[in-house]
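Hi U.,

Before I forget, here's the chain from the pilot set. I'm dumping it here mostly so it's searchable later in email.
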Amino acid sequence: MTTIAIMAFLALLGAPLTRDWVDGTKQMQARNALLEGVGYARALALRNPLHLADDAPIALLRVSRGRAHIDLTGVGTAWQTDLPSSVNLKTAGKADFGSVDAFASSSDVFSCVAFNSRGVRLPAATDCLLPLTEERIAIGVRSKEPLYVEIL
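Structure:
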């Protein structure tokens, strides 16, 4: 009985630590996926396979239903990856969110970013409206401080 009680006590102590570790891992996986997506979208836009005008959106990095994907204009989906569950993505300027509560209360949900043939971010492309003042994607999971990905 004593052994079982000690094991139960240790399990109760370890559960919050395990959840925090899992949340941190999910956050890092999402950050790495978005870093890859932003870099690849920019590279595809620089290639400009259909030779579109400089002000046209060439590659769009979109996030929807737990999946990040790159849409290449005139070609279709060029890249995609699943994002970990319970990850929240918000747009952010130069300043960090002051707290986890500030992140949670922000309504600036990230959905997409577009790049032109020079690899420059477009402020508004088709249904992708992201002001140039929003320079980063903030990635949060539950009570973890957000991580950031530069949009370029």
